[in-house]
Every structure is written in structure tokens, then in C-alpha cells.
Amino acid sequence: DCFNMASLVLDQYLRCPVCMDFFADPHRLPCSHCFCKRCLEGVRQHCLSFNCPECRQLVVLDYRGVDGLEKDRRLAAMVDEFAHQQQQSRVCKEHKRTVEGFCETCAVLMCGRCFFSDQHSGHTMGDVDVVAKKKRDEISSELALVKGKVDSILSDSEVTVQSQLCALQEQITTEFEQIRELLRHKEEALRLEAIKLAEKACHGHDKIAKAQELKMKITDLEESITTDGVSFLQNMAELKERVRIEKKLVSSLDSEYTDTRICLPTLKHGDTELFLMSFRLAPASDPRLRIRKSSDGSEDLTFRLSTQHLESSNCKHSAKLSFHTNLVLEKQMSPSPAVHAASFLSSGYLVLLDLNSTLLLFNEDYTLLHELRLEDKAFDVTALSDHMLAVTIGAAKRVELIDVKDETLQSNGKIELDTECFHVSCIDDKIVTGNGSLVSFFNVKGARLKTIIMSGMIQSLYISKSHRKMYLNIRSEYVLCADMRGNREYKYKHDDLQEIGGVTADNRSLAYACGSKSNNVHQIGPDGRLVRIILSKENGLTKPISVGFDSTCSKMFLIEKDDTLKEAVKVYNVNY
């Protein structure tokens, strides 16, 4: 029994924790845990870094991959010896012959001679296969009973969960329908208040006109007072009457003035509150209405209140609320060969990177100024400053620096890195690259500053300099927003955003992601929720693969690809 117990324990320690089979070509990680070579290849998924399946410690491989790890030859020898011992265990220890039968009374394996020994006289014995089938059927019957009871428990639980889920969904639908109804009523009330404000604004303009007219009359009166004494005394009674009339008009005009500040009530339904802040509409102003989602002002939406004057006999006025982010197509280009990356310079220049690793420099009028062909295959481009670009040469493990001087592109050296680099962005004179699931920060000399492991394969990345956030396209499935330490702010995934391409953000903390399969561009709020779809197939969009802004976020470029693999670059003017 002790020997069997030891064999069981040894059997567990000689099995790979990943495949649960005996170790095959075991390799040892720096954390001292061992795994099969093929299992390590599956875990790392063609990446040069991964977490140990046992202790989750980060493992960074060199260019040789798993072959660069230490082989555990002693462990491999132990596995071979244990397999040999297991084979020997099928031999009868007393007669050194292969076992052929089984004694059910003693529960031991027997060879042919054991059948005729006095030790097993009168016992129930049989052939190994026959007894094994009999015992296997007995255990299978018991397992079937247990499995039936478990299935019954699961079925009852599933019915209970489904009924609770249906009840919860119905409750959610009812609650939110009530909220929507409440908001519809409040919206109508708000529109009526806006119309009143517009009328008051018009009244304010009328007041100004009347006040200017009164001012002219007062100026005339002041001139009449300065005449000679005889004329003044002769007209004094008339002047007093005019002053009395003008004073009465001023008092009347002043009493008619009413403040256009209106405090709107708090909307409340259950645990949901919308705090509608007071707002003021004054003549010749640019009024806005802020709707706050929380009492501390941490989340709010700003709307522009625009007044439209309708020409009619009774001069009525109306007002409307709208969220302004209008895009106007300014330029469309179709360079050949196709373009797969772009970047704006703060000087207003636009730089495109085509499939032949050629950089194209355009001025503000989109006139081609200069071309620069790079020696190796370039992957991505970003602006380091108003006169310098960084271009990633992925497989060569380096970044090319390009100067923009006198409307030309000039090579300004190379930064050698210790890893492959594909996607690129920058912040605070640091170059940020994306490779596999790693985001790496380098200084301008190529020294690695830090590396952050993300939750999946990075397809594109953007670093926002204004609010210091990372926006990453993970496996073309969702957008991940994280701080500069890699802590997740939100994860955005939407059924109407398929095969995500480029991601970017503006200076209002709004993110943008384009879906090449869904043919649209989503605008994402700071809370990780959809604000609206700013471009779609209805706007002539065809498989967008990249998006970005200039330094002022007044222009947005979009690279798209049609079914013939022909790519186009569109530049939009952005109006907020």
C-alpha cells in the first residue's frame, strides 16, 4: 500500500500542469516551474513574453523563444524511469511472469502459475479483461446514478435562474420605460422654457433699441440746456415736460426688464437623478445648457442653445437643443500605392505612409511637397514634435527619426530598440510602442523605461497627451482605455462596431474608433459609453482602417479601403 501511495504521488509530480500528461521535453522557467515544450509554445502564442501558468510571474524570452530556456534533463530521465517501472509493475512479483488474471477475493493481479497455487485456493478468479469489464460496468452504473442526480439538480437550478432572469429583465424594462417617459415630459417642459427664453432674448433686443433711442433724446435735451439764459428760461417749461416724459419712459423700460435666469427642478426616478443646472440667455451671447448627471458635477453634458427667428406677422420665436460635433469633408485623396498610416504635424502638415514605405508630405492645401523612401519595411508613423516624426521598422527593432525642414523630409538617425516595434505613439519625449500584448516606453536613446502587459494582442494604440490616457485596440474586438500605469479605465465593446481598426481621442476626453466591417466611426464618452456614431455607410464611408486628429482637434483624417483594396484618405473639418 505504501508503494502504491508513493507511485500515485510520484505520478502527480511527473505530469505537466498544463496538459496533465507526463512531461515531454520539459523546459524550466526562471521561476523554477517546468512545462512541456509544446505546452509553452501554446501558452506564449508567438509572443516573447507571457505569464507562468503556475505562479503568474512574467517571463521574457530572447530571440530563440522557448528553445532559449533551460532543458530539465533530470526530470526527463525521471519520467522515462517511472514509465519503465510502470511497465515492470505488470509482471508478477512472485513468479516474474506477465499477469493474466485477477483474484477478486484478494484484489491482486496473478500470473498463470498463481491460478494453481494454494494461496488462492477457493477464491473467485478470472481473466484480466473479463474482470476489468465486470468491475468497470459496476462503477459505471454507480456513476450513472450520481450523474442523473446532478443533472436533475442543474436542471432545477437552470429553470430557477431563467425565471429570475426573465423577472429581472421585465423589471428593468418597466423601470427604464418609466424613466424615458419622465424624461420625455421633462424634455417638453424644457423646450417650452427655452422658447420663453428666446422670447425674452428678443425682448432684450427691443429694450436695447428703445434705450438707444432714449439716449439720443437725452443728448438732445442736454444740448438744449446749454443754450443762452434767455432761450433756456423761455423753453424751461417745455424742457421740464420732456424730461418728465423721458424719465417715465426709462422707469417703464426698467420695470419691464426681467432676468432670463431660470432654475430648473431636479428630475428623480428611483435612484436615478438628473440635476438640470440653471442657465442664462442674454442678448448677443452664446448660451449653453449644462445637464449634470451627478450632484458633484463629475459628469455633465453641455448643449448649445440656439435661437432661430421665424419671420411672421406676430414675430414668434422658437429654440432647439443640439449636441455639436459636425464633420465637414474638406479633402479626399487616393494616393498610389495605398496608404496604411498617417499623422498630422502641429504646423498643419499631413504625412502619409504608403505600402512601399514611402513618406508623403502635404501642406495645408494638400499639395504634395516631398517624398522620402525608407530602406526597410515601415509599419506606423507618429509626430514627436512640430518638426520631427517617428517611424517604426517592426522586424528590424528600430525607430527611424525624420526631420521636417523647409518643406522636405530628411532622415535624422535611428533609435535601436531591444524588441520588435509595430504600433507607435508618444508622450513627454518618450516613444511608446505596441508589440503583441506589450506596451513599451523608450527614451530618445532607445533605453527601455518600462513595459506594461495588456489583456490581449494590440492592433493599434494612441496616447492622449492632454489627459494622459492610453487607448488601445485589443484583438480588433474592443477598445481599452487605461491610465499610464496600465490600470483600466473602461472597456468599450459594441455590437455595431465590428473589426476595429484605428483608435484616437480628442482634447475633450472623447475617444473615436472605426469599424472596418461595420463601416462606421463611434464616438465614445469618458465613461466608456457610446455618445453617437459620427460617420457611417450613409456618409459614404467604406471600410475605415485608421483615424486621427491634428494637434488642435480641428481636423480629422480617416483612411478607408474599398472592396478592390484601393485605399483613400479623407480629411474632415471638425466643428464642436
UniProtKB/TrEMBL annotation:
Origin superkingdom: Eukaryota
Domain RING-type: 16-56
Segments traversing the membrane: none
InterPro entries according to UniProt: TRIM45/56/19-like, Znf_B-box, Znf_RING, Znf_RING/FYVE/PHD, Znf_RING_CS
A single GO molecular function term of this UniProt record: zinc ion binding
Keyword match Magnesium: no
Ranges for domain B box-type: 87-128
Alphabetical keyword list: Metal-binding, Zinc, Zinc-finger
Entries under SMART domains matching the protein: BBOX (SM00336), RING (SM00184)
A Pfam entry, by short name: zf-B_box
Protein name, per record: Tripartite motif-containing protein 45
Species this protein is from: Magallana gigas
Phylogenetic lineage: Eukaryota, Metazoa, Spiralia, Lophotrochozoa, Mollusca
